Amino acid sequence: MNPFRRLSLAAAGALALAACAPHPIAPEDGPTIRINPNEPVVEVLSGDVIVVDQDPIYIRGNAPDKSITWQLTAAARRDWVLVSVNIGANRSGQNPFRCRAQNEFRFRCDNDGLRGDYKYTITVRHRQQGRTFTSPDPWIRNG
After folding, report:
1. Among 2, 41, 85, 96, whose Cα sits 20 to 30 Å from the Cα of 105?
2. Burial label, 4 (beta-carbon count in 10 A; 0-12, 13-18, 19+)
């Protein structure tokens, strides 16, 4: 085989292997997204819109920790207080969740893992203006 061709094939192989290697993501590529059903992230957008990073929140039946801790993003904490997280009962009228505030930006709900679908709401209050509003009713699925 021609030495030039051999060198070209070796270089092409090295480039192919380099392309398969993981590349670090620079900060300018955007935020790192981390979705954890035990720790939903809550953002408040202009126009009084509450966004949770996952819907439905799915808690696996065999998960060792079935609790859910909602937390406002650092940006939302400047202007908003997390007032409440209310989780409704399932179709059978049962509710395995016991929720309590941990501070102004975090609510924790203990969960005994009873299977079913549960609607919940999140209420926030603007720090300076005092206005409150509540999210639509997204879902939690205990599985």
Report:
1. 96
2. exposed
Query: Who's near 106: CB < 8 A, 6+ residues apart?
Result: 69, 70, 71, 72, 82
Identity of residue 108:
R
CA angle 110, 114, 119 (to 5 degrees): 75
Tens-binned pLDDT, residue by residue, of the chain (143 aa)? 655 444 444 444 444 434 433 333 334 444 555 688 899 999 999 888 999 999 899 999 889 999 999 999 999 999 999 999 999 999 999 999 999 999 999 999 999 999 999 999 999 999 999 999 999 878 999 98
